[in-house]
Predict the structure.
Amino acid sequence: MEVRFKGIGVSPGIGIGEATVLEDKKPRLVYQFLLNDSEINKEVARFKKAIEEVKKEFKQLKKDLGHRAPFKEVKQILDTYMGILSDPMLFKATINRIKEEKINAEWALIRSLEEIEKIFSEIEDEYLKQRVQDVHYVVNRILAFLHKKTETNTQLSPGSIIIARDLSPAETIQLPSKLIAAFVTETGGRTSHTAIVAQALKLPAVVGVENISQKVKPGDLVIVDGLSGEVIIAPDPETLQLYKKRQEKYLRYCKEVEHYAYLPAQTLDGHKLKVMANVELFEEIPSVLERGAEGIGLFRTEFFYLQQKTLPDEELLYEYFSKVVKAISPYPVTFRTLDLGGDKFSSQLDFGKEVNPALGLRAIRFCLKQKDVFRTQLRAILRSSIHGKVRLLLPLISSFEEIIETKEFLETLKAELTREGYAFSSHIPIGVMIEVPSAVTLIDFMAQEADFLSIGTNDLIQYTLAIDRNNEHVAYLYEPLHPAVLKMIKQVVEVGHKAGIPVSVCGEMAGDPCYIPVLVGLGVDEMSLNAQNIPVVKKVLRSFNFKEAQMLAEKIVGMGTIQEIKEYYFNALKQWFKDILVISGRERIEVGYEREHQKDCLHE
Amino acid sequence: MLTCYLRIKNKLGLHARPAAKLANLARNFHAEIKVVKNNKEADAKSILDLLTLACKFEDKIKIEVNGEDEVKAFGLILCLLESEIGERVKNGS
């Protein structure tokens, strides 16, 4: 009998294969006293060999990562791991314990770990205190190698479906991606680490599937639908047949969609839109252009900061931003100013720990408090504007004062630069991110001062519906088609257009083909999304009429329940373009699932 | 024995990455290499020991190198520390 589970689909595609269950690795430890010198020598040799093997593993891993930019951080972590591996406090100390206390390698190693933990617990600096996690990871790897005989579950056959409670960054990159068909985890949300890695590897992934690792047996046949979030264990022959067809269709469809990259982004009746890309690092720009982006609608500047050892100075930032501006030119780049919290600079700027960082001192709030950090960034962005088209975007605006203060600050900086003889473009549009409900309420004011508006749907939905998306218990409530969300988008667009400024949407909603008609119908002018979805979004855009989308949007904005909206919306979409919905399975599953879920809730 | 004083100029302090670099370099020498802060000393060959010193931005540390290859070790270690971590200061100040 097949068993169906529902999680959150975070990376599209369909994976069919045998389950490999990664258990939380807690090898059962054996404690043993050694009787004589020969046993001691054997034990020391065994320990040294395990260390060598872990070292080899880390080295190989580093080599495998090559020069791919997104993995730079991971490589530095590996260097630290290797340092810890041969650290006297771990290496020599353990060997001495084996010899002096006449105990086996595992026991001695655990004793060394306890000693290190004790010392680290006395450190006050939070960042350094956290490093003990690195020691834990290294010790676990050594233990795994000491236990080599008992460890069989890392042996993967081609087409494995990886099922785990949680996957750490180190674990995920260690898995041989060529042998993997899909990932399934119990924890995590749409932006979890597993999601990011799976998308990078172009493998299907479903997260937030409760208790799956206990329900599935290694070797079970499993189907994973990374779009709908469905996971099916031991499927019936008919189901298997159906999904094999879907998988084929999906792959064919992916190939076909690539052709749309270079076609204009416009509806059947000629309504034009700007489709731009969300970018984190300079290295992504070539692939962004290749996929047909007309510029960068959201450049997340904080990623460059996170790559640095210390806060970058103006020259370094200027060089980096200029490189970006030149590479994307003649298209524009929209630099979103630092969207970070003080927690990311804990050792440098002391803000203490925040209980609720999502509502804490971050983004524009942080920048206006730390004016020196903000000043350096803004000056660098202003200066880079002479190389092409630059727009500035302010994140997490929740009050009108924040815009006024930032604009005044910008004017001061411009005067400063002029005095110092630096050139900058005289026209740098300033945009406001609309991602806090209060910004929507005050949208009349926001539109007066802004040159464009950009709706950040991820945070707007999260703050409006009071949902932490990384919390698997409430993740199902995250709903872009919530009537409150639709009404907000409508209001922002209307006010923006009245003020004569364009409105864009960045966030996952803009990257999901299913939501394009409603966004276009509501009158959004620009969309900025993950570059890999640009071709499919263009395909969708080019297959409906603007007029019809407007009517559809008008209709559903007047509805009061999610269910009503979804039924009406997806029924209409089904008639416009069948292929997309059949492949994603979204309409059928989502509406059906919501109903079942509501029923479950009533019973409780 | 060779000694010198440094003030930490790395904003994050002597954090994991520079500590790993220092330990990896120090392990190439026979000489005993110590980092001393407020009378607490750490073995420069141990990244963990170095981290436990919790050296922060603007802290002053003392480097002590003692052993047959101390001259070479001292020079190379200073090179690394000055480029990654801090600047030399006169003893006491």
About this structure: Confidence is low (pLDDT under 50) at residues 149-153, 583-604 of chain A. The radius of gyration of chain A is 27 Å.
